[in-house]
Amino acid sequence: MFAPKLMPGDEIRIIAPSTSMIILKEAQVDLAVERLTNLGFKVTFGKNADAHDEFFSSTIKERIEDLHDAFADKNVKGILTAIGGYNSNQLLKYIDFELIAANPKVFCGYSDITALQLAIYQKTGLVTYSGPHFSSFGVKHGLEYTMESFLQAVTNDAPYEIIPSDTWSDDAWYLDQENRTFHEQEGYTIIQEGKAEGKLIGGNLCTMNLLQGSEFMPPLKDSILFLEDDEESHSRSFDRDLQSLLHLPDASSIKAILIGRFQKNSNITDEALRKIILSKEELRHIPIIANVNFGHVQPIATLPIGAAASVKAYGKETEIFIEQKE
């Protein structure tokens, strides 16, 4: 089930179901509001978006209230999460999934928000979007690719391609908007060749693994699995987290894997990643593409969880096409 696409004039509600919006700089918030307003959207905020405790989050009750209010409000057409964090999975058993199913809306974010996105998709069938947070729109330089992919995903019904960006950056832009380094990108990295079709399932790997064995974990059957992790990940943790997914009963039917570019502090080199992947007999028969534009390294594409997709990887050429139909 796809939510109605966003149109100029639509209201986008900003909520903070993980870390509080209070940690964002005022200039970053102002720029994000300006960017979205210039796209023709009206930006509003959940009443508890700035609430926070000693963990820089808010109570479960406050976060659930903002989530439910956003889906229940008939004027709200899209929902953006403020930022990621660590604790959105606290909310899962308190969510009114019937309310969400009855009021399908664009719901977009990434990182820790993966727990909510996968749970909503599993419990309601609503396609959710792994893509920019509200805070992502506060990037001063290098937002063009992120913006274009977001608009392709949430304002248009046409198929679109996750093409490699011309450049990428792993700077702490939120600390210094001007001191940025952009690296040239020459396509994605093919670890294994092949072609496949399937349903996009994935997001942040360590967050996804929090759902294993619960009612909130979607099946991996016939999936194109897309995975990313942040700078807290390293070769050994990524290896075991991936292996944990591969032990799931339906993992044998995964059709392809897309891996988002790792942050430099992860120290996961292409060589290390290749060795990890090639050590897994379970994956020998499927196409695997790494350094794809999603996750914690900018810019990022928007991927609809639950949508059909096709993947091709031969030689140095890759194709990742997203369908936007039921």
From TrEMBL:
Pfam families: Peptidase_S66, Peptidase_S66C. It comes from the Bacteria. GO terms for molecular function: carboxypeptidase activity. Residues 12-131 form the LD-carboxypeptidase N-terminal domain. Keywords: Carboxypeptidase, Hydrolase, Protease. Residues 197-311 form the LD-carboxypeptidase C-terminal domain. The keyword Ribosomal protein does not apply. The active site is at 111 (nucleophile), 228 (charge relay system), 296 (charge relay system). The keyword Nuclease does not apply. Belongs to the peptidase S66 family. This is LD-carboxypeptidase. It comes from Mesobacillus subterraneus.
